[in-house]
What does this fold into?
Amino acid sequence: MKRIAFFLILCAVSTITMAQVVLWNGDDKEVGSDGGFWNRADPTVVQEEGGNKCLKVTLKANPGGWDQEHHNAALPVGDANFKGLRRLSFRLKMSDQHNVMVQLEGKDGAYNAKRVFWYDTPDEWQTMVYEYSVGPDADKITDDGSNVIAIWPFEESADGEGKTIYIDDIQLEGPMVNGVAVRTIADNSLSGHVVITGAVGKGNYLNTWDGGWHQEAYDDYALLAKKLSRGVTSVDLRQASLTNARNVFASANPNTLIFVNQLFPGDDYAYIETSEDNPAFYYKPIGNYVGDPMPYYDSDAGEFKIMYLYEQRPNPANFYHPFYMLRSADLSSFTDVGEVLPTGQYADSWDAAPGTGCMAKQDNTYYIYYSGNYTRNIPNEYRQKILRATSADGIHWTKDSWHMQAPADGWDKNEFRDPQIWKEGDTWHMVVGAKKWNGSTNMPVVAEYTTNDLGTATWTGPTVLAEGNNADNFFECPDVFTMGDYTYLVYSEINGSDRKVHYLYKANGANGWTTPAIDVLDGQGFYAGKTASDGTDRYIFGWCSRRAGLTNDGGVDGDGWSGTLVTHKLYQKPDGTLALTVPHTFLNTLNVSRTLLPREKTEGVTESDGSYTLTGVSSLSFGRLKYKNELKATMTASSNTNEIFGFSFVDNSDKDAVYTVRLNLQDEKIYFNKDARNGGVTEISQVPLPRSANREYNIRIYNDQSVCVLYVNDEVAFTNRIYGMPRNPWKMVCEQGTVTVSHLEWKTD
It folds into this structure.
């Protein structure tokens, strides 16, 4: 037989550590024993330098009996369950290059399957791979019908007599779902959240069973993709051992989210997301997304109940975003209640696609007022109504038949949604986002209703609480509340570059609203903000939009219309305007302090007592971030009018761009930009930046997976989605003027 020294196999460490069916491993065997092998070739468990235990066999002649008895090492496997796996591997070390045969025998002679693999690394451990899903007797092999595995280091010959062979880590490998080998699962049958275990890789190797070599190519990723249906939402590979990782799962569902423990280089996969089921700050359901949040503080339970629209990608046709709920006492840890308000059962029901609403409590009854969306387009018919449900505990809900629609005279039948309720004295108030005819076009308005009883069928109104001046705009998710001497209207603007959370305010009892000089609360990465107070602090809850295709170049519309729950603390400044800061419960969430030393300083950087001064175009480069990070720094501008400085993330040489958050004191704005390495800057989002009177800008950055929130001077919040921010280097940059960086801190979990 021709000996061929060509192979490409999985890395030994990868396959060994994550095999599903371990047939033999020296770790738990007693040194000096036979390790459970048959008495052939003097099997003995030995310990190598470094502590690894393995099997040693010495091949020899047997003149008094079967002449080949001691030419092989035989392991009985009668109790092993192969679980549908047919790729066998083990590690082997010997002094000669030679074909190594493995003989798999079935009970009662049911089969006798032989495979040969070439060993060509004398005196070094080599992983040997044998394919039993093809070749002679492959169709006869069963999961529990095997008798023995015999390893013949020199095939069925006497060439190895007197030779010593070492063997370890005999196992069956390949990807599995729920304890079943992927190869045995029907095509297009897996849906929802799919958890993969075992060894997953791509490569090829040579086997022979008939005198001719057969190159076996395997691609576990492609095999797995064939098993996924259109209904798959996520593939979790964190419990698997991966080699040559790539994402080919978009063929089933282009929005499939992939969970892995590390990112892999290369261009043959879409962005691979890391674990998001253990959030430090920002919550999202595994494989799906948070739509508009509806927060309520339940003082009786001492917790926030946060309902949200449960967004899937793709959403089912006609029936989508039921209400799910989170419970939290501190807003940094969450209990997922799951679905609390399902969609309607029929495509022509008003709640086939429930929309944003609110929760309130009167006496011992909880109420949800929410939007009903009629998903079928019938001309001149109402498309939206306000609906209601009740509950005794705020968790288990019953829909009732009450509903409210826009008035027939002068109001848009298609734009009437997002109710919000609050109480003043004995009167309940409800606002609804709507559009009203002004004589020439339908203009956006906030409609207000009142009642003395939430359970009544009658509300008085509507009156117009606020009116917009652009027919293309809309008051989404309106929220009215009072703090001290002022009343506030927070809303989300749906249109274009102004798609942000805004607010108006007025002195209590005043008629007209004031638009503050800075009327936005965060940037385009934060949307659908609604507030709730625990009686001491008020918080605003919104979602950080994911990006189409789960890439930094993807837009936030369409597929990006949902994401991850983000919360800010909202407070009132002395002049009545609002500001944002980090929730105080976040401050001690990450408790591992790490040393933050630059790995590179460019020209223009000087250091003094742990502070760094950056002048002109200069930067400090740092190592890779973790998955959850808190960064703090004080950045002091020299002139406070000229400086441009900030942070660049995903600063990896194999990427074609970095993503930079710039504090631009000239423009009095913070920008989030894509900076192409070959030149060119693309703006993604921006927020206003008030200049600091003392020239100091105290920075806090909270990063949880791909969500990044920047706080400046406990006044401005800037939320963005930055894929690849974890596990990649980053740097602090100065592009104009002079800035001094001090009090650098880094915490992780």
Notes: The first strand starts at residue 21 and ends at 24. The chain has four domains: 21-173, 177-274, 289-497+571-586, 592-748. The two ends are 57 Å apart (CA to CA).
